[in-house]
Amino acid sequence: MSREVLLTGFGVQTAFGSGADALREGVFDGRPAFAPIARFDTGPYRTDVAATAGGAVPLREALAKTATEAIGMAGLPPRADAAVLVGTAGDFTSLTRFWRAMAATDGSGISGGTAETVPAWQAEALADELGVHGPRLAFTSACVASAMAIAHACRLIASGRVGIAVCAGAYLVEEENLAKFGSGFALSKDGMVRPFCADRSGLLLGDGAAAIVLESAQSARSRGARALGALTGWGAASDAYHVAKPHPEGTGLASAARQALRRAGDPRIDYVNAHGTATKANDPAETRGLRALFGERADCVPVSSTKSTTGHLLEAAGVVELVITLLALQDGVLPPTAGFTEPDPACDLDYVPNRPRRAEIRRAMSVNAAFGGANTALILERA
Amino acid sequence: MIAAIVDDEVPPVSGFVESAFNPLVYQAVRQCLTGRPGLTGRPADGARTALVLASTMGDTDTLDLGSRRLVAGQVHNPLLFMQSTANAILGRLSLDFAITGPLLALSVLGNLAGELLTTAELLRADGELDRIVLVGVELAGSERTATAHRELGTNPPAVSAAVAIALDRDDPIPSCPCGNPSVPPIQSATYGSLCGLVEVAARIRGAKP
Questions:
Q1: Is residue A133 flagged as an active site residue?
Q2: What residues of A are in contact with residue B47 (Cβ under 8 Å)?
Q3: What distance in Å separates the CA atoms of residue A372 and residue B103, rounded to the nearest whole number?
Q4: How confident is the model over A202-237, as pLDDT tens digits?
Q5: Of A57, A114, A345, B164, which is the most buried if we count CB atoms within 10 A?
Q6: Domains in chain B: how many in total?
């Protein structure tokens, strides 16, 4: 497995809008996008706040839009051979719509769209929309789903099985997850997401969709495509600790990151885009995991959680945060951890509080974690 | 290599109360891991073991129960929050069997067996892993999955089942039943999308499905 994996295109959409400039103006400015949700009645739920971009759209549209932008930027020809790997749990709005129709009409009023609840359908539909040919898979591993998709694409490309992969992920704020996260007392109480702070009270959901084009150096060279960055390391590991809580020492996260570093040849990491959910359990665990990983260097490695501005993008977190990491590398600017107040004594890294920071960075790592103790790490190198 | 096919009553898994999905997965994987504890008699290294779960529809019972409760205006059960992703049962297995390698959960519309076997091959080629445990699972389903299957033109399974296969480093990757991993096998009325995996597992077990 020695083929280089290059990133040649991306498309992204968050509550700040579409494209890199929207991220620069929101995420990199440290401007949280949280506001009252207007797309459905939030009366029954514990919070009415999330980072949303206007009204509800089908998940397939967000995936198609960002993936079309990504392949346009990469300059992929029509009907290219490419794997399509998508981090998604399916369209929850369609799920709610189905059961509302069943409750109201005993099912006779349902006219199509139910397949959109099936995660694999989203990958198939996206590949059909893009007109590409190759493996199609959905990754359903919750908050590491799209990072897992990216790691899988890297394996496919590094092994020579495919030359090009379109990796995408999407989550759009809807009622099912707002209810679930609320029932689990995981949502912020003050309308802000304050990762690593003493007064953090939880996460808020956010709209997110992104797609990246990954390809072998040989494929990029033969097409004359410009590399924006290189995926040099990827890793995945589990905590073997609890079905819902992370290991308090962040062992799985550190292990995933060590794998990624080994694969990348143990380079120096200049920035970490953290999972940073602002939940009581995640942030100290992640901090300890990163401390164990970096050892004496830990105090010198800036770490920020961009969920403080975008909200938690669930299945889309991995791919959107990788795009943010790419922009940090390209622009030489670290996105801050917004809404930062007093640090939790158990969280003692450099979290780039509140303001963006100029930094000449060459390599960055994006880490994610999910239910069941699943962890991922991706290393991105500036082109 | 070792395989298990579980399609009947299974013991409950504590904390997973609303659906057969998680107990089926647990039982199939448990049978493989206890039936072949490690390579050449040595205990398997949990850090060098991966769990890969694939399902077309996922845990539809838990998901649909949560949605029906939401539509009915009932209070959400926090347990459904935890159970609604396949990660949860994979996490439970990783805890019980000290597995600290990767946990993957996939949704596949075409050739579920082929995708699982390809994933096993890829993970093994990585060099970081010695054992890959594959598990396919599908529930008999609900009104929603019946509707989705109609729209997709696929067959819902008649039974809820899970099939697990544990592959060690030196085991050959079994061939896909249809020969070509990109061509989905015709879905059977009994096992739906799992039929190819059932065939592979039966071959490993030396029995007809």
A1: no
A2: 237, 255
A3: 9
A4: 999 999 999 999 999 999 999 999 999 999 999 999
A5: B164
A6: 1
Token pair recorded at residue A132: 């590409």
- Which of the two residues, B12 and B81, has the higher pLDDT score? B12
Whether A312 is catalytic is yes
Tell me how far apart the alpha carbons of residues A248 and A227 are, in angstroms, rounded to a whole number. Answer: 38
Active site residue A143: yes
Helical packing angle, A282-294 and A251-264, nearest 10°: 40
- Smallest CA–CA separation between B147 and chain A, in Å? 7
Side-chain-facing half-sphere of B161: CA atoms under 13 Å: 23
Quick one: CA dihedral B145, B148, B152, B155, positive or negative? positive
Place of tokens 């099985």: A161
For B78-123, the pLDDT digits (tens) are 777 778 789 999 999 999 999 999 999 999 998 999 999 999 999 9
- Asked if residues B47 and B88 have their Cβ atoms less than 8 Å apart, the reply is no
What is the number of CB-based contacts under 8 A between chain A and chain B?
206
- Indicate which CATH number applies to the domain containing B144: 3.40.47.10
Domain limits at A317? 5-382
Burial code of B68-89, b = ≥16 C-beta within 10 A, e = fewer?
bbbbeeeebbbbbbbbbbbbbb
Contact A374 B84 (CB under 8 A): no
Mark yes or no for CB contact A372/B85 under 8 Å: yes
> CB–CB of B87 and A141 under 8 A?
yes
What's B101's DSSP letter? Answer: S
Cβ contact B176:B113 at 8 Å: yes
pLDDT band at B207; cut points 50, 70, 90? low
How far is Cα A183 from Cα A379, in angstroms, rounded to an integer?
35
Q: Which among A154, A197, A275, A347 is annotated as catalytic?
A: A275
Range of the domain at B199: 2-205
How many domains does chain A fold into? 1
| Identity of the residue numbered A346 | A
pLDDT band at A107 (very low <50, low <70, confident <90, very high): low
